[in-house]
UniProtKB/TrEMBL annotation:
The keyword Transferase applies. InterPro entries: DegT/StrS_aminotransferase (IPR000653), PyrdxlP-dep_Trfase (IPR015424), PyrdxlP-dep_Trfase_major (IPR015421), PyrdxlP-dep_Trfase_small (IPR015422). PANTHER family: DTDP-4-AMINO-4,6-DIDEOXYGALACTOSE TRANSAMINASE, TRANSAMINASE. GO terms for molecular function: transaminase activity. Belongs to the DegT/DnrJ/EryC1 family. Pfam families: DegT_DnrJ_EryC1. Gene3D superfamilies: Aspartate Aminotransferase, domain 1 (3.90.1150.10), Type I PLP-dependent aspartate aminotransferase-like (Major domain) (3.40.640.10). Keywords: Aminotransferase, Pyridoxal phosphate, Transferase. This is DegT/DnrJ/EryC1/StrS family aminotransferase.
Length: 367
């Protein structure tokens, strides 16, 4: 049996829906992008989503909307993909890493305050594996120090915190719809801004800085517009949106199934010696893009699973070690502990009950 760690979910209706777009020959941003955005709001509770061509574009646009520039600092968790910090560097600003919670892989609110300087502009919260960060505590620190909260929710579409949807909590939330994320448009992303004026600005900046809705075609055949701020080529296109719309069908059932699989894993693995499960608090629901845990003797664990055709992976270790970001921070002791023992096992839409049992049985045989 081969059990991969990820799969790319494509709803059966996607072929037809994408073909229809190809048949129209209207490929760029059009009515399907709008429809997809409406679906993100109605199905996932996202506020004012603007659909973009990647999660990285969403994070970079967040930097622009937050006014992050040279000399500024953004505090974030190292337990993420490099994109989270690269967008800070792209603006000539400095990513400042705070320590994480060993129990979740998320930023530790208690450590954030230690990292605040007069240059700090924003806090970026990354929901590792889809498990929501301590948003109340993070918002409280942000309010106290007048900082903006940006969520990197690349792993968290469908997650909730205290009954509220991720995408409806912080001033800015960014999503990724990349191929192995659990809601995919091939490549794509979205930015959600709570403030309607900022949401308008996001729409403008994603398309060269042109206000598309208010730039009528002149008789001469060109849109009438005036660019007043730097814009980008960050919008989603209609054939990607068609794939996204297809994949929104049944999203809640897929999410429920993912959570049921996670629950089974938790029941089966909670008492296995050498395994420590990550936290699962009652006040939030993970989107379970990943099923992570801590394992003693990790390399032996990976090899034992690999011998049975099962892929286990760290997915990402802390990103602070990259020379661009200044190299490993020895003071981030929880991140170092996390790096040493974290591991993820397969959880995705193609994972059958039988395969889950097989993974559990293999793990229980020891490593
Ligand atoms: C996937 C991912 C991104 C980047 O998203 P893309 O759509 O690939 O640009 C950003 N942050 C995290 C945490 C991710 O996992």
């Amino acid at each position: 049996m081969q059990v991969p760690i990820f799969n790319t979910y494509i709803h059966p209706s996607a072929q037809q829906r994408v073909s229809e777009v190809l048949a129209t020959t209207f490929l760029s941003e059009g009515k399907l992008v709008k429809e997809f955005e409406a679906g993100l709001s109605s199905e996932l509770g996202m506020v004012n989503p603007a659909a973009l061509n990647s999660g990285t574009s969403a994070l970079h646009l967040a930097m622009i909307l937050a006014g992050i520039g040279p000399g500024d600092e953004v505090i974030l968790s190292p337990q993420t993909f490099v994109a989270s910090a690269l967008v800070v560097s792209q603006q000539g600003a400095t990513p400042v890493f705070a320590d994480i919670q060993y129990e979740t892989g998320n930023i530790d609110p208690a450590d954030i305050e230690k990292r605040i300087t007069e240059r700090t502009k924003a806090i970026m919260a990354v929901h590792w594996g889809g498990y929501p960060c301590d948003m109340d505590e993070i918002q409280a620190i942000a309010r106290k120090h007048n900082l903006l909260v940006i969520e990197d929710a690349a792993h968290a579409p469908g997650a909730t915190y205290k009954g509220r949807a991720i995408g409806a909590i912080s001033p800015i939330t960014c999503f990724s719809f990349q191929a192995i994320k659990h809601l995919t448009t091939g490549d794509g992303g979205a930015i959600c801004c709570l403030d309607p004026a900022m949401a308008q600005e996001a729409l403008k900046r994603r398309w060269f800085g042109i206000d598309r809705a208010n730039s009528p075609m002149s008789e001469l055949g060109e849109r009438e517009y005036d660019i007043s701020a730097v814009g980008f080529k960050y919008h989603l296109n209609d054939y990607s949106a068609a794939l996204g719309l297809a994949n929104l069908t049944g999203f809640h059932d897929r999410m429920a199934r993912r959570r049921a699989l996670a629950k089974r894993y938790r029941q089966e693995l909670v008492n296995v010696p050498g395994i420590t499960l990550l936290q699962d608090a009652a006040d939030r629901e993970s989107a379970y893009w990943l099923f992570g845990m801590h394992v003693e003797n990790r390399l032996a664990f990976i090899r034992a699973l690999k011998a049975k055709g099962i892929t286990a992976s760290v997915v990402h270790d802390g990103i602070d070690h990259n020379s661009l970001f200044g190299g490993t921070r020895e003071e981030l002791t929880n991140q170092l502990r996390f790096n040493a023992t974290q591991i993820h096992i397969p959880i995705h839409d193609a994972l059958t009950e039988e395969e889950l049992e097989y993974v559990v049985t293999t793990i229980k045989q020891g490593w």
